[in-house]
Amino acid sequence: MKFLVDAQLPRRLVVLSRKAGFDAIHTLDLALGNRTPDRVINELSIKEQRVVITKDSDFVDSYVVKQQPWKLLLISTGNIRNTELIALFVANIDKIAEGFKVFNFIEINQMNVVFHS
Residue 50: what are its φ and ψ, rounded to 5°? Predict the structure, then answer.
């Protein structure tokens, strides 16, 4: 599984994803960095079959209307500390990876991992 972590999320998610055995990049790793347009992120996601990890609801709209990005993990926790977000991600990374074998859109909040069909 390959991930592309969006600008508003900590780069540490990339480090933790790699430690868990996944290929991961952050928008900071792209040529335009955190200014990379959503359109470019979607194109890269499709080209490299990367799951976009984001808090940006614009990606949900794009996924529903255009089926872009390739796959989507929406972080819908609201504003929480990065340490809490990281703990939540680590606690659920295996469940999320398994879910992406069946689902293309997964949402994680402070209470649940939600699989959207």
Answer: -105, 140
Looking at the whole model, is its pTM more than 0.90? Answer: yes
Q: What angle do CA 68, 29, 23 make, to 5 degrees?
A: 70
| Sequence spans of domains, the chain | 2-116
> Alpha-carbon distance 64 to 85, whole Å?
25
Tens of pLDDT along the chain (117 residues) come to 999 999 999 999 999 999 999 999 999 999 999 999 999 999 999 999 999 999 999 999 999 999 999 999 999 999 999 999 999 999 999 999 999 999 999 999 999 999 998
